[in-house]
Write a sequence for this structure.
RNA sequence: GGGCAAGUGGCGGAAUGGUAUACGCGGUAGUCUCAAAAACUACUAGUCGCAAGGCUGUGAGGGUUCGACUCCCUCCUUGCCCACCA
């Protein structure tokens, strides 16, 4: 064997590191005059105790290949790496192993870094960031202070999702199917004072600005749906014998005459107030039960709607009708004010509810049969007084206008997006830089005192009371108020995982800066990120929230544009050989170290590029890895047997140009699997025609292969006697003229079926092609006794004779 | 219930209006070997045929076209995301 990956790979990794080949150049006046830049970004990993996943390798290899090609094309490339290291998994891991989270983090990062380096990725390690480094989280806290200053960070007592097992509050995004995202325990509701971030203030801009971005449509629609903007009306239902009114949100103001009840969410503060004496027992018990039930349990009960009458009534503003007020658990507390107008005739849920509790069903839009089921489409109004005969569309407009005039309601826009619960009652996170003073209230920590470092403690287990472990460290909590000097206490909640990952890509532009989160000139040069690859699972979390934070920083003049990412792509998951998710409990995890030890990093890299379309989930196949290793051996053979030949034949050169074109173009479109197949075809052809293949072709093939198999490419490049690294070379250009063959196989069809393939000179005329086609023996049989009706000629491709 | 993808050999997949199944895996036979592994060579969608060759074939059905895996319509299946959002 003429190529031994084990020996070779480490050698070149060292060589590249010494040459500092992958360091990005800052713009003047900090660096050399910088040419055009490309900022290529992969989501930084969470350094877990499990080590690098082969899924990381897939997306990092892809973007590494792109970065390498861009450098060879002359771009000043920033391709950085760092660690998203705060958060629950490390804290849990530390508790389990009995070591401190900071030590666990250090150990895990060390391992991840070693693994990434063994893959030969071209990261600029001089810009490494770590979210748990006080020098880094100083600026995470600074961003929080700015949000607080602008009124976008606030505290609010609210029912939050609570995991009884982790003893921690969860963001809506962390509750999946009613269960805690991490441990799978059904989430409960618990009232706690929480820090909130007002992302809703940016809802419109987050939708609007998507238009300009090069994101997959799927990502855009998912974000739009998540924000969930809907246009409708807010309508006031005056409560009988009271000054108060119930505000309901509806997108179907046209059905207002069909209201036969108003239903409140059990959590609604109004609900309790409206319960009358005679309904007290029943209704209060109902509320208590409903509150105790988690969202999940409510869902599990086969969506059977339940409810209870409060005893109170309100007034339908459009016709003065007296309408009963109910409480029902099908009403979502956090949307639309937690109240709905119930129109059984024209809403499925209301229909079920009304049927169950014997409430009236009144048809006000014609078009369906409401004895059978609710009619939810638009139609023509009836039983609606002066609005009869209008179409639903017109009626929505007219009725809303009328309400607005009477000051009983009006147009209203609602969002599904809710403000972001930004506090965790945990140890392993950034302390929130706020001080609570008895006299002055909430006082922000003065900027010059940042960072507020996380105190090193022995006990970091959750308290379980809902308070963070920091709350028991008295000498840390107690502090003088920076405003009045009186007694005060530090905020003891910490920030969620997302806080550090919101802005990490800005820090790469200027990772050492102690005066600002990053220098403005550097941000102006590097931002926005030109290409950001990550997982679909981050679409409505990290990707949306970091866009919001970037917009906020733009508004306060810290960053140069309002969108951080120009282009977004996403990779598919790498599944285990059995088609399931890789998981320790299934025992089906593939460790990249094992593959690297056995076959080398290049084999793993090539395999992951070859295994299937980049955007698709795909199962691991151990035999497939062997197949790639065979390819590497074949390549080495080809090299050994042909590198002494001088010039390649015309055919080989043509195929090489085709390969050149394919790699250059498909790389941009992330069609890596077909690129690797083309290399295989080229090598197979070269081995078939050893005498025709020479040094010139090998050189170019190595350049083309170098982004994918950098070690192998460098090794053979240097074996050819080159004095500089292959990565200091220019990306090869292809010659379109060389791709054109002199003779081509023209397809001959009769009635659209292929009957023959004839060799003809390139650029043959229709007449000549026709003559040749008709005279073909095979074709003659199919034309016998038949009249030629029509001939379709596609130049240099095919000729179709219709008989 | 809503939204978005996708259905092609034994398997991963290629071809996005013009040779369907490239490339790889697996399989079969052979070479080498005391033997095995590895490697190499040939074959590998189904079907009829000694062969030449024919016919069928890209989830199902229909349509557009000289020509459809590809475009349009209806349906089925699978996957992902969202979901009592008024």
């Amino acid at each position: 064997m003429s190529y031994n990956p084990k020996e070779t790979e480490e050698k070149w990794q060292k060589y590249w590191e010494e040459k500092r080949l992958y360091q990005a150049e800052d713009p003047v006046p900090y660096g050399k005059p910088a040419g055009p830049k490309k900022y290529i970004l992969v989501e930084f990993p969470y350094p877990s105790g499990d080590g690098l996943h082969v899924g990381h390798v897939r997306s990092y290899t892809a973007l590494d290949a792109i970065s390498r090609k861009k450098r060879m094309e002359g771009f000043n490339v920033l391709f950085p790496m760092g660690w998203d290291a705060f958060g629950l998994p490390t804290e849990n891991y530390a508790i389990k192993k009995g070591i401190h989270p900071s030590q666990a983090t250090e150990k895990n990062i060390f391992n991840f870094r070693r693994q990434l380096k063994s893959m030969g990725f071209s990261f600029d390690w001089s810009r490494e960031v770590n979210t748990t480094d006080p020098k880094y989280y100083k600026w995470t806290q600074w961003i929080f202070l700015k949000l607080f200053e602008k009124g976008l960070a606030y505290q609010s007592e609210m029912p939050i999702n609570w995991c009884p097992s982790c003893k921690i509050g969860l963001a809506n995004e962390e509750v999946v199917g009613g269960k805690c995202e991490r441990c799978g325990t059904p989430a409960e509701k618990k009232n706690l004072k929480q820090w909130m971030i007002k992302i809703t203030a940016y809802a419109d801009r987050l939708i609007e600005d998507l238009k300009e971005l090069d994101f997959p449509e799927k990502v855009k629609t998912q974000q739009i749906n998540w924000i969930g903007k809907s246009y409708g009306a807010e309508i006031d239902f005056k409560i009988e014998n009271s000054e108060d009114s119930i505000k309901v949100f509806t997108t179907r103001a046209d059905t207002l005459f069909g209201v036969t009840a108003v239903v409140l969410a059990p959590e609604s503060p109004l609900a309790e107030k409206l319960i009358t004496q005679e309904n007290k027992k029943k209704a209060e018990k109902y509320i208590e039960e409903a509150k105790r039930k988690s969202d999940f349990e409510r869902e599990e009960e086969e969506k059977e709607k339940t409810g209870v009458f409060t005893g109170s009534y309100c007034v339908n503003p459009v016709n003065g009708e007296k309408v009963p007020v109910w409480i029902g658990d099908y009403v979502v507390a956090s949307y639309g004010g937690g109240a709905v107008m119930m129109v059984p005739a024209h809403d499925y849920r209301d229909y079920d509810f009304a049927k169950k509790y014997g409430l009236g069903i009144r048809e006000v839009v014609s078009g369906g049969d409401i004895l059978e089921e609710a009619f939810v489409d638009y139609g023509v109004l009836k039983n609606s007084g002066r609005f009869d005969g209008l179409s639903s569309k017109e009626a929505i407009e007219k009725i809303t206008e009328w309400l607005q005039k009477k000051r009983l309601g009006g147009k209203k826009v609602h969002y599904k997006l809710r403000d972001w619960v930004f506090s965790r009652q945990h140890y392993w996170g950034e302390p929130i830089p706020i001080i609570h003073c008895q006299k002055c209230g909430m006082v922000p920590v003065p900027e010059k005192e940042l960072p507020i470092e996380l105190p090193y403690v022995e006990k970091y287990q959750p308290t379980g009371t809902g308070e963070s472990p920091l709350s028991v460290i008295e000498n840390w909590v107690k502090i003088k108020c920076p405003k009045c000097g009186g007694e005060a206490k530090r905020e003891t909640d910490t920030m969620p995982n997302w806080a550090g990952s919101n802005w990490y890509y800005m820090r790469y532009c200027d990772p050492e800066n102690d005066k600002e989160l990053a220098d403005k000139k550097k941000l102006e040069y590097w931002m926005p990120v030109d290409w950001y690859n990550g997982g679909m699972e981050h679409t409505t979390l990290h990707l949306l929230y970091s866009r919001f934070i970037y917009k906020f920083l733009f508004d306060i003049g810290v960053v140069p544009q309002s969108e951080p990412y120009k282009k977004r792509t996403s990779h598919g998951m790498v599944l285990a050989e059995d088609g399931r998710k890789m998981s320790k409990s299934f025992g089906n995890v593939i460790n990249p170290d094992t593959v690297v030890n056995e076959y080398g990093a290049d084999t793993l890299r090539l395999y992951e590029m070859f295994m299937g379309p980049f955007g698709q989930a795909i199962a691991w196949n151990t035999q497939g890895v062997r197949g790639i290793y065979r390819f590497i051996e074949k390549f080495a053979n080809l090299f050994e047997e042909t590198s002494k030949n001088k010039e390649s034949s015309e055919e080989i050169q043509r195929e090489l140009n085709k390969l050149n074109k394919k790699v250059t173009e498909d790389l941009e479109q992330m069609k890596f699997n077909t690129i690797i197949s083309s290399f295989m075809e080229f090598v197979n052809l070269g081995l078939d025609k050893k005498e025709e293949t020479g040094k010139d072709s090998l050189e170019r093939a190595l350049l083309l292969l170098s982004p994918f198999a950098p070690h192998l490419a460098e090794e053979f490049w240097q074996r050819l006697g080159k004095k500089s690294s292959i990565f200091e070379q220019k990306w090869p250009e292809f010659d379109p003229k060389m791709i054109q063959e002199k003779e081509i196989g023209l397809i001959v069809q009769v009635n659209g079926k292929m009957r023959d393939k004839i060799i003809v000179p390139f650029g043959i005329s229709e007449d000549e092609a026709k003559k040749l086609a008709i005279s073909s023996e095979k074709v003659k049989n199919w034309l016998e006794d038949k009249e030629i009706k029509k001939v379709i000629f596609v130049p240099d491709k095919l000729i179709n004779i219709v008989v």
